[in-house]
Amino acid sequence: MPGTGPYNVAQVRAVDLATGRMSVLDTGRVSSPVYAGPHLVWGKIDSAGHYLLRVADAADLTPVATPGPLRSPGPLLYLAGSPEYLAWSSGDLNTLTVWPVGTNRLLHFTQSDSGHPFQFLQLAGHFVLWYTGTASSVLDLRTGDAFDVAGAVAASADTIAVEEQLGQPPKGTFASVRVSTLAVAAMPGIRGCAKNGATSPS
User: Which of 94, 117, 127, 190 is close enough to 145 for a disulfide, judged by CB 3.0 to 4.6 Å?
Assistant: First the structure.
């Protein structure tokens, strides 16, 4: 919605589906919220133009102190959360920062190939999934290696789903696709196939 200044503003709202009661958690230049462990987290740009991460208790929606590793996130573009991790990409889309929830450390990944921007992030276990604009990629947070996937991907806390087109359909017809699911717990670590050049210096 229009703000009083040069930027549009938005609200972070929570709705109790049982009662219909709606709460406004924040207003301003805010991002969509994500769940990360026991937290609800969203990005915000304050009146001085600084990027912030705001945190609330996911159970009762009360504000909580921002954990130390999240207090200076730098420019935020895409945000994703899961029971184990919070991840965000930087302003140039070539840097990915990941917070293992509840720890005092951050993992940093950089792109040596600008054709794989960190955008439309998803998390499944210790894997980050994202759409590059032409294909999808999967990064193993434990090894820092990654690979490309020809089809679209979707993530839940413990499963990765992959959609693959089967052949080239005749003109004017719909394509046939196959959807496969992979349990994160059964997947081996990704090693030695970092096609998109993702690396982790820490």
Answer: 190
Task: List pLDDT tens digits, range 132-176.
Answer: 888 899 999 999 998 888 888 999 989 999 888 777 777 777 777
Residue ranges of domains in the chain, CATH in brackets: 10-199 (2.130.10.10)
The whole-model pTM stands at 0.85
Distance CA(122)–CA(133), nearest Å, equals 15
Q: In what order do the strands lie in the sheet with 159-165?
A: 152-155, 159-165, 177-183
Instruction: State the Cα angle at 62 between 34 and 47, rounded to 5°.
Output: 70
Within its chain, how far is the Cα of 34 from the centroid?
8
Query: Distance between CA 51 and CA 54 in Å, rounded?
Result: 10
